[in-house]
């Protein structure tokens, strides 16, 4: 595929994805065929076919030989795919999806922090410290991008401190979703993130002291604090005993 074809195909892919997310192309129904789409987008059938294959690989379309592709239910979409998350964000991510993302992090990350406290090396601690410094720099410079970069690096470094290849693979898959979570819960005024920075500092100290239970509690506190501010005023009753 040459660069021009690739660029056209990417544009078609994104537009079709947004139409699917907005419900303009309905779940369970066939979308227009390749010839019709090629006319709509004034593009070659090759570009259209490439776009459909990408959406099929991401679980958004059911590709059928010699038949029109069908929009699949959301449950089949690859929600950990960076492009899918980006498209959802472009349309306007739903509050329910943000809630489900936070629940996923609450299930996963506190125990990761506890494992990190047991296994972190000096090199790991340095990486966590560097990430915290980036968060502090972003706060000082009022740079949301820098703060988010540091936040993601912090949680990634904690995950890597577990020295568990299976957890690392799960973490890599979750990284795009975690970045989206940071964006959804980041204070508009970064000067209001002082509490969050202190919470991350407390977690670093618990890991440094190899206090697994304390690290677990610190991570849970980080996540629940963000959830209380931006998602729930109180944890939904059905989850209260879970967390």
Automatic annotation (TrEMBL):
> Which InterPro entries does the protein's record reference?
GntR_C, TF_FadR/GntR_C, Tscrpt_reg_HTH_GntR, WH-like_DNA-bd_sf, WH_DNA-bd_sf
One Pfam family name is FCD
Alphabetically list the UniProt keywords.
DNA-binding, Transcription, Transcription regulation
Instruction: Report the superkingdom from the record.
Output: Bacteria
This protein's name: FadR family transcriptional regulator
Q: Which GO terms describe its molecular function?
A: DNA binding; DNA-binding transcription factor activity
Describe the location of the HTH gntR-type domain by residue ranges: 6-74
PANTHER family reported for this sequence:
GNTR FAMILY REGULATORY PROTEIN, TRANSCRIPTIONAL REGULATOR, GNTR FAMILY
């Amino acid at each position: 595929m040459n660069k021009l074809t690739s660029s056209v195909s990417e544009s078609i892919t994104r537009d079709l994805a947004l139409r699917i997310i907005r419900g303009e192309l309905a779940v369970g129904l066939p979308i227009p065929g390749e010839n019709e789409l090629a006319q709509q987008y004034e593009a070659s059938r090759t570009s259209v076919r490439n776009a459909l294959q990408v959406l099929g690989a991401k679980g958004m379309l059911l590709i059928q030989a010699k038949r029109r592709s069908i929009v699949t239910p959301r449950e089949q979409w690859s929600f950990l795919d960076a492009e899918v998350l980006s498209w959802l964000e472009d349309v306007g991510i739903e509050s329910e999806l943000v809630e489900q993302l936070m629940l996923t992090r609450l299930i996963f990350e506190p125990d990761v922090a506890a494992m990190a406290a047991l296994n972190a090396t000096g090199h790991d601690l340095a990486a966590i410290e560097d990430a915290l410094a980036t968060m502090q720099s972003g706060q000082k410079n009022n740079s949301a991008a820098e703060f988010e970069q540091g936040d993601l690096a912090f949680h990634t470094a904690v995950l890597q401190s577990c020295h568990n290849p299976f957890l690392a693979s799960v973490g890599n898959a979750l990284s795009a979703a975690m970045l989206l979570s940071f964006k959804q819960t980041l204070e508009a005024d970064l000067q209001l993130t002082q509490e969050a920075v202190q919470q991350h500092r407390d977690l670093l100290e618990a890991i440094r002291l190899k206090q697994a239970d304390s690290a677990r509690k610190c991570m849970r506190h980080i996540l629940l604090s963000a959830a209380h501010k931006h998602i729930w005023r109180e944890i939904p009753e059905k989850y209260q005993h879970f967390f």
